[in-house]
Amino acid sequence: MYDLALIKTLPVGAPSAYGIGDTATFVITIENQGTVDATIPAGGLVDYYPVGLDLADTNWTAGAGVATYNNAVGPLAPGETAEIMVSFVNNGTETGTAINWAEIADDDSDTTYGTSDVDSTPDSINFNQDGETDDLDDDNINTEDGKNGGDEDDHDPEMITLDYYDLALVKTLASKGPFYPGSIVTFDITVTNQGTVPADMFTITDYIPAEMTLADDDWNDVSATEAAMTITDQLAVGESTTVSIDLQVNDYILGTVTNWAEISSDDGAYLGGDWDSTPDTINDELAESPEDDTINNENGDEDDHDPASIEVDPYYDLALVKYLVTTDVVEPGDVATFEIRVTNQ
Questions:
Q1: Which residue of 56, 101, 229, 299 has the smallest Cβ count within 10 Å?
Q2: What is the DSSP secondary-structure string of 117-157?
Q3: Whether pTM exceeds 0.85
Q4: Are 166 and 291 in contact, with CB atoms under 8 Å apart?
């Protein structure tokens, strides 16, 4: 009796979700369930992969959604198994679940024994046999008869999730001017989850300009030039959260003052990190944000980093103090001298 069966799985301990650029490796286990030796020739094992995956395995040749294994498998003695690996990269074009199928396309049953596999029909067309269902009901079943109503056991799926982590930040001015030295200025920082998975924790760093000083107890005063706030409330997919920060304009300041904020860390490492920006505490203004308030990396803007500006207006302020220069006791006929000091504040 000639009988080969196939099961497709993920390696033990492998994640089920993969971010953009991550590599997913599948294990294809071939088992000889027959009573005679069996061989799959080179090109006789195929893998049907979805558009969200790109082949990343030199042992396979890519086709139009079908990868072909370049090597022979076997000969396998009765009861013997072989494990073949195949790897794909999440190319970022699809999200959600991705089902990857494998099938035995050819074997040596006819050429060696003049017979065929007892319960399945090798080919390289997905779902063309009654036993090749397009759902996961037949996952890892290799004991049924595909020629008589059961699962075709040379054809098997495995499912993964194609996800990506993506947070974007916009900083806006919440206070209304005019602004002068000593003014308290409030900025709003809005973070939006543009990814496909929730964000459970991230930290915002505010780069305090030299013209301003932190005036907000809700923020951690890291240094004279940095304040930080960590958000631990889960940010669901598509949701936004807004936090505010108060800064005070320092003395003797005039003109434009720009305040930047950035996502400096997040919990997306398990998906390879944020797919279109790099959390850090380096305020690389020119490289990161040539555009204000963009959240999709338009014009090269890194969308986790954003500025907002104010204009500190000129103002006129003279102060006068008068001092008695001579002795405090002045007799009749004495000349009293006073000093009048005027300061431009």
A1: 299
A2: -SS----SSTT-STT--SSSTTTT--SS-GGGTS--TTEEE
A3: no
A4: no
Backbone φ and ψ for 123, nearest 5 degrees, come out as: -165, 175
Strand partners, 247: 185, 214
Q: Note whether 268 and 164 are within 8 A (CB).
A: no
Note whether 267 and 201 are within 8 A (CB).
yes
Q: What is the pLDDT along the chain (345 residues), one digit of tens a residue?
A: 999 999 999 999 998 889 999 999 999 999 999 999 999 999 999 999 999 999 999 999 999 999 999 999 999 999 999 999 999 999 988 989 999 999 999 999 999 999 999 999 999 999 998 888 877 777 777 887 888 888 899 999 999 999 999 999 999 999 999 999 999 999 999 999 999 999 999 999 999 999 999 999 999 999 999 999 999 999 999 999 999 999 999 999 999 999 999 999 999 998 888 988 899 999 976 655 545 565 665 555 688 999 999 999 988 888 999 998 877 788 898 888 999 999 987
> How far apart (Å, rounded) are the C-alpha atoms in residues 191 and 45?
47
Pairing of strands 155-162, 96-104: antiparallel
Structure tokens at 29: 């286990």
Which pair of tokens denotes residue 305? 């980093």
Burial 99-122 (b: 16+ CB within 10 A, else e): bbbbbbbbbbbeeeeeeebbbbbb
Residue 173 forms beta bridges with which residues?
A: 187
Terminal CA-CA length for the chain = 101
The one-letter amino acid at 310? I
| 343 alpha carbon, distance to own chain's centre | 56
Q: Are the CB atoms for 154 and 7 separated by under 8 Å?
A: no
For the chain, how big is the Rg over CA atoms in Å? 35
How distant, in Å, are the alpha carbons of 16, 17, 98 from that of 49?
16, 16, 8
Rounded-to-integer distance, Cα 183 and Cα 93, Å? 48
Containing H/E element for 98? strand 96-104
